[in-house]
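From the shared-data thread, chain only:
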Amino acid sequence: MNNKRILVIDDEDGVRDIIQITLETVAGWEVIAASGGQEGLEIALAQQPDAILLDVMMPNLDGPATFKQLRSYSQTQHIPTILLTAKAKSSEQQEYANLGVNGVIVKPFEAQNLVKQIRRLLGWESCP
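Structure, as tokens:
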């Protein structure tokens, strides 16, 4: 079975934990966690995950800045990325989508729907 490896970059421990438990239990995916943009960038370069869930609001290196750096490296520019944001306004979501991310998931999200949302945004409906 070809399990997916997902890198979750979020500065909130509780959010990372919920995402990790959900993705591992519901989808059987391997989850790699980072607590900030710089750490996430280093992990992405070293471990080449199948996808990245990236929080927008983080100290030091925020989500959009991290995403731009990911796109600047040939090793990481192909990795599908979904932004996680607490900003629910459609204009803000559109602004994030215009960055070139694969999608936006609004926090708080429902844990039971998270895997479905990720699969839909990444076209992984038929993937394990």
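The longest strand covers residues 5-9.
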